[in-house]
Design brief:
The protein is mainly beta and 436 residues long. The chain has 3 domains: 4-127, Beta-Lactamase; 158-282 and 398-434, Mu homology domain, subdomain B (Immunoglobulin-like, Sandwich); 287-396, Immunoglobulin-like, CATH 2.60.40. Helices cover 14% and strands 42% of the residues. A hairpin with a 4-residue loop joins strand 21 and strand 22. It is globular and about 75 Å long.
């Protein structure tokens, strides 16, 4: 099966190394990194000198297996993916710092998950009976994770969800379950703002700190329609093109009541994935980008960029980043932001001719503008040479798909069993591009 297992930091340094059979040279990780750095291999699965390399990258970390045997790549990738989930469940957050502080615990987990290169058990719940090391605290648990959401009656800081599973009954003294509804938008627009392509790849993610194995009933929108089910979506209804569910979900009540019944496993898992392949209505577009290119003189150009938040002002975009490139023939660039704009910065990288505009908090139903001036050489086709405008952003407590968790019931006979439930939602970008 597997000859070696590595967990490598983003800079290539080894954090965890297990050599099960002594069949592969110890410098196998260096061979792997050289191929990655030189970009001679871009696939997560490749072979060099008779050694098979299979890798999963998570939060900048490389989880790598080597083998001289013809192993099933899909099986090894699934095993490595499950290893990332188990590590995150036990140490709270997956980062280089947390792994280094908890390397003893990680080695214990690896020893239980694999024996002599063969997979044994990779279930968070089943491993609890065999794992004894306690996790060490990490100073920055939000690193590489979802942002902290603003507290409301139904939410709390997202840092709480990164608590190690072994501490689920300590500290707060509560049983807890977290449910996140996450929308990832991919969209392209033309210069006039018309939508060319639009899709949403979303998921409902759970992390369970519940004791015992209580039954959960999670109800979604009553007006939910799945494409191909024979029901035509009407006004105000939420239509999904494709859905799939975790294996623990019982779908008996889904068609009639839009309810998911399950006994959640310990730790974090994806309860449901869904896909929306086209724009259902204009209200699904969170930001409108309007580019305007003007020739001030024969050589001096002005590129004015206007971005409007189309959602209600009770929401806000966080960590908004807007990027575009000016023509390669340009000599320098300068930008102007409105004097009253707060929490906004811009920078110009002359090596790549890239302008980056950062907006810390973009309140809904407002418009922000940036004016960029640059000088080009004679004979330049400025409009053709200008790069597209790309955006990245997060909108806490807002989901474009309108998929909602109506209620979350925990069925338990003991009336004293009253766990805390936290339901949150987030919209963020996969790709958001406006062609000039």
């Amino acid at each position: 099966m597997i000859s070696q297992l590595f967990i490598l930091a983003p800079n290539g340094h080894t954090i965890v190394h297990k050599d099960y059979r002594g069949e592969v040279p110890k410098e196998a990780s260096e061979t792997f990194l050289r191929k990655i750095v030189e970009k001679t291999e871009t696939s997560p699965i490749f072979t060099v000198d008779g050694v098979n390399y299979v890798c999963v990258r998570k939060n900048g970390l490389f989880f790598l297996c080597t083998s001289v045997y013809n192993v099933s790549p899909a099986f090894v990738i699934e095993l490595l993916t499950q290893l990332t989930k188990v590590c995150k469940d036990y140490i709270g957050v997956l980062s280089e710092e947390s792994l280094r502080k908890n390397f003893t615990l990680v080695y214990e987990l690896v020893d239980e998950i694999m024996d002599f290169g063969y997979a044994q058990c990779a279930s968070t719940a089943e491993l609890q009976a065999y794992v004894y090391n306690e996790p060490a605290a990490v100073s920055n648990p939000s690193q590489g994770r979802l942002p902290s959401f603003k507290s409301t009656p139904k939410t709390m800081s997202s840092k709480a969800v990164h608590k190690p599973i072994s501490l689920r009954d300590q500290g707060s003294g509560k049983n807890e379950i977290f449910v996140d509804v996450i929308d990832r938008i991919s969209a392209t627009f033309n210069a006039t703002g018309q939508v060319r392509t639009f899709s949403i790849d979303g998921s409902i993610q759970m992390k369970s700190y519940l004791t015992g194995s209580p039954e959960l009933q999670l109800a979604l929108n009553d007006e939910l329609v799945i494409a191909g089910s024979g029901v035509k979506a009407g006004y105000g209804m939420v239509e999904l093109d494709n859905v799939n569910f975790h294996e623990c979900v019982q779908l008996d009540k889904f068609e009639s009541q839009k309810m998911l019944v399950l006994e959640p496993p310990h730790g974090e898992f994806v309860l449901m994935n869904f896909h929306i392949g086209s724009l259902r209505h204009e209200g699904q577009i969170p930001f409108r980008v309007t580019p305007m290119l003007t020739a001030l003189t024969e050589y001096k150009q002005e590129f004015r960029l206007q971005v409007r938040a189309e959602f209600a002002d009770k929401y806000h975009g966080a960590n908004v980043k807007v990027q575009f490139t000016v023509p390669k023939s340009s000599t320098g660039a300068s930008c102007e932001i409105a004097a009253q704009a707060k929490g906004q910065t811009w920078e110009y990288d002359d090596a790549t001719k890239t302008i980056t505009w950062l907006i810390r908090k973009f309140v809904g139903n407002t418009t922000q503008t940036l004016a960029c001036k640059f000088v080009v050489g004679p004979g330049s086709n400025v409009k053709k040479e200008m790069g597209p405008v790309s955006m990245s952003f997060e909108i806490p407590m807002y989901n474009v798909s309108q998929l909602q968790v109506q209620h979350l019931k925990i069925i338990e006979r003991n009336k004293a069993y009253n766990p805390h439930r936290w339901v949150r939602c987030l919209t963020h970008t996969e790709s958001y591009v406006c062609r000039i």
